[in-house]
Design brief:
Keywords: Signal. It is built from 14 helices and 31 strands. Strands 3, 10, 16, 17, 18, 19, 20, 21, 22, 23 and 24 form an 11-stranded antiparallel beta sheet that branches. It has a 7-stranded antiparallel beta sheet with strand order 2-6-7-8-15-11-12, with no helix packed on it. Strands 25, 26, 27, 28, 29, 30 and 31 form a 7-stranded antiparallel beta sheet that branches. The two termini are 32 Å apart. The chain binds zinc ion. Zinc ion (ZN) binds next to helix 12 and helix 14.
Length: 800
């Protein structure tokens, strides 16, 4: 469940491209992105996804914003709609801004006059909701009789905690800049300028000296500075960073000055946005202390806190980074917004340093932990992106905290802005997807045409068409995975250390090449029609995690090129995967299946499935062919079992349960979510009561009620013992051990308490066993009294 205590969601934005700034700034990133407006993607992988985003996701999210009160918030603030009802969270305004941002990028990729018109009328409403001095925050302007408890009794007083006023401003600026760049219209930009001018008047040395509770306004202000040339915006962005810490919480990175931070901590989306904002300031001001801090934090994340999928933020407690090497799989939080933030941040790190290792992290995130956030259909979404499941995870049609949904909406159409970058006469080719692009170098204009079946095939053909023959340098990224290094550092390594040839040809002739910071450097005189071909070794690799990651011990993950694979129920025997074991030396094949999941490579390998047996501890193993699909494509066929990390050691396998009384019973409970029912009879003993790495059943948010769970046996059995393992996620979560419970059995259609011969106990972190006088029955029921102020849950309930 999403921790709603302190959560406030998250979000993000994009850097992509800055076309036609009104004024040229003196300092900026040494390497400049090639604007999304100049890159026309036409491949078979991303282009269809951007098409789904344009045709399904954007209209869907706009409709959901309307249906869920977000448009009404603006209408009420504008006094165009009666009443003072507001939607759920004070940051709900940002979903509308992010939808506008996505729509803007999308209209640049493909014209859509109807969408253009509806965005125009939306902007008119937003303008009407803005107060005369520029303040724009519907939750205050509506002036509700009972104001939302997060907003504070005056402007800004709750900003450092929960009001999200500046957070709303940040997303407004990102949307305004995107809309201006894509359409040339100043309507939203003017609203943003009026708002940013209010911030300049309000915050700064000698004015209000407070930091944003949820970062993003820093990024937005840097973008506003680039577009308007108003240096006050840049100064304010830097002020908002410098005023952070040291007396706040680690939760939102305010426990130290930003330049004194050297490890990733706290809420992962806030963190990723802050590091991105710091990179912007480092580029725009030349501040070396900022750079030193984010360089250290980057190394900390990449060597200790990054999922193989590129996801960040391991724990749902505070939606935060975990400790070093704390990377649980089933309970992985890895929020979609954090993956998007990780892409923003790594792109900026590349623009600062020109090293391909940042694009390696970006690409890994993009193809795996980010893309998993949206369904193939474009209208179902993940907030956390776990790396293992036992049916308990499912994509949502909408989430009241919709940050991840609107973030995905705006990110996907901005993708073309990440393919290339340039520095005078150096052209960086960072991502591989078929496209045609027009890029201006110092030596003149160059049209670049990429043709490739990446990520399924490793061949990339690049045709170089300069307007006039001339000397410049192509820097072609050689991905880390092609050099046997999945990520920088030693967090992940390939099991087989064989290296595969990597060939680069120019006009059909193999060429040796120099590499610099991970790029093949091709400096020569280029003429129209010159062709570079890169042949990357698209091999199936087994990836191992550092031994310090305890959750991945005895396991490997399949990877091919940039794609991380997983085992999912529908492709495997009995729809089970947690019981699968694959030998370390097993040979794996990959084949393209055009009709599966919109076309994917499927990996097949010989493996075994493991099963518990009654009356013996030995595990039964049966041979089977195991199939793996790309991780991003899982959960498109309903809830299922899934795992990224595949056991090669028997100790890591979770065998199929033996047929016990519990496992063959039908479960019912005073609960609607039937997907939790299997958890209590899966025969997995948790490490402790708060262990979220195994499924559990819970009644949250119910409290102080009497609840039940019930086993209907497959036949009459004589039973005399019950053992139950309680779920208790204190002090952060909402579940605690119950006040009391009792066992009843079914006798002549009535529930009768058993006569216990040992006392009922309610202890944490172990099984609570109770024995009772034997009863022959067809059903047992447990009645549970929830604590007054909390809910409760059950990991496992066994009977015999
Ligand atoms: Zn989110």
């Amino acid at each position: 469940m999403i921790n709603t205590r302190k959560t406030a969601c998250l979000l993000s934005l994009s850097l992509a491209a800055f076309t036609s700034p009104l004024l040229a700034q003196q300092k900026d990133y040494p390497i400049q992105p090639v604007a999304f407006t100049s890159v026309h993607v036409n491949d078979n992988f991303w282009q269809p996804k951007m098409e789904v985003n344009a045709n399904v996701t954007i209209p869907y999210v706009l409709a959901q914003c309307k249906a869920n009160g977000r448009m009404d918030n603006f209408l009420r603030a504008a006094k165009k709609l009666d009443g003072d009802k507001l939607s759920e969270f004070p940051f709900d305004d940002t979903d509308v801004y992010k939808a506008i941002e996505g729509a803007s990028y999308s209209m640049q990729n493909k014209k859509n006059p109807q969408l253009d018109k509806s965005i125009d009328s939306l902007i008119t409403i937003i303008g009407a909701a803005q107060e005369p001095d520029g303040y724009l925050y519907t939750f205050r302007t509506v002036n509700a009789k009972k104001p939302h408890e997060w907003i504070g009794d005056k402007r800004w007083v709750n900003e450092e905690i929960l009001s999200h006023e500046l957070y709303d401003c940040g997303h407004l600026y990102e949307a305004a800049v995107a809309h201006f760049q894509a359409t040339g219209k100043r309507t939203l930009l003017n609203i943003a300028i009026k708002n940013a001018d209010l911030l300049v008047k309000t915050f700064g040395p000698g004015k209000i000296e407070e930091y944003p509770g949820h970062q993003i306004v820093e990024i937005g202000l840097s973008k506003m500075y680039r577009v308007t040339g108003n240096k006050q915006y840049l100064d304010l962005a830097k002020f908002f960073l410098d005023v952070r810490g040291p007396k706040g919480d680690a939760y939102n990175q305010a426990d130290k000055k930003v330049i004194d931070q050297h490890e990733a901590e706290g809420h992962a989306v806030r963190a990723a946005y802050m590091y991105t904002g710091m990179a912007d300031i480092a580029a725009l001001t030349g501040d070396t202390k900022y750079l030193a801090a984010i360089d250290d934090i980057w190394s900390d994340v990449v060597t200790k806190k990054l999922y193989i999928t590129g996801g960040i933020g391991a724990t749902g407690a505070g939606e935060a980074f975990g400790e070093a090497y704390q990377l649980p799989n089933m309970s992985a939080y890895a929020e979609t917004c954090a993956a998007i933030g990780n892409v923003y941040w790594n792109n900026r790190m590349f623009l600062l340093h020109g090293d391909s290792k940042y694009i390696d992290v970006l690409e890994r995130t993009l193809y795996n932990g980010l893309l998993s956030g949206v369904s193939l259909s474009g209208n179902r979404f993940f907030y956390p992106n776990p790396l293992a499941s036992m049916f308990q995870h499912q994509r949502s049609a909408w989430i009241s905290c919709a940050c991840c949904i609107s973030n995905m909406t705006r990110f996907l159409p901005s993708l073309p802005g990440y393919v290339y970058a340039k520095n005078k006469n150096d052209l960086y080719i960072n991502l591989f997807m078929s496209n045609s692009s027009n890029i201006k170098l110092t030596s003149g204009n160059v049209n670049i045409v990429q043709q490739t079946d990446y990520p399924w095939k490793g061949r990339v053909d690049i045709t170089v068409n300069p307007d006039k023959t001339g000397e410049f340098t192509l820097r072609v990224r050689i991905p880390g995975w092609a050099k046997q290094q999945p990520v920088p550092g030693d967090l992940y390594t390939f099991m087989d250390k064989k290296s595969f040839p990597l060939t680069l040809m120019i006009n059909g002739q193999a060429k040796s090449f120099e590499t610099e910071k991970g790029y093949a450097v091709l400096k020569r005189t280029w003429k129209k029609g010159d062709k570079v071909s890169l042949l990357l070794p698209m091999e199936t690799e087994k990836v191992l995690a550092n031994q310090q990651v305890k959750d991945d011990r005895g396991r490997f993950a399949f990877e091919r090129g940039p794609i991380v694979y997983c085992l999912e129920g529908p492709d495997n025997r009995d729809s089970l995967v947690q019981n699968i074991l694959i030998n370390k030396n097993a040979i794996a094949d990959a084949n393209y299946h055009a009709d599966l999941l919109n076309g994917v490579d499927v990996i097949s390998a010989e493996g075994k499935s493991a099963k518990r047996q009654l009356k013996t501890d030995s595990i039964l193993q049966t041979d089977q062919i195991v199939k793996a699909i790309p991780y991003y494509a899982w959960a498109n066929r309903g809830p299922s079992e899934m795992t990224v990390w595949i056991p090669y050691e028997t100790s890591a396998v979770r065998p199929k349960p033996a047929p016990t009384i519990a496992s063959t019973s039908k479960v019912s409970a005073s609960l609607k979510n039937v997907r939790m029912f299997a958890a209590i009879k899966d025969q997995y003993e948790p490490a402790d009561s708060k262990d979220t790495n195994y499924p559990y059943l819970h009644w949250w948010p119910a409290k102080n009620t009497n609840e039940f769970v019930q086993y209907d046996f497959d036949a009459e059995h004589t039973v005399s013992e019950s053992k139950v393992y309680w779920y208790d996620d204190g002090p952060w979560g909402g579940c605690r051990i119950p006040v009391s419970y009792k066992i009843l059995y079914k006798k002549d259609g009535q529930w009768v308490p058993v006569k216990n011969t040992t006392p009922y106990t309610v202890n944490k972190d172990s099984f609570n066993v109770v024995t009772f006088e034997p009863v022959a029955t067809t059903a047992l029921r447990m009645e549970i009294q929830l604590p007054v102020d909390n809910s409760t849950g059950i990991h496992e309930w066994a009977v015999k």
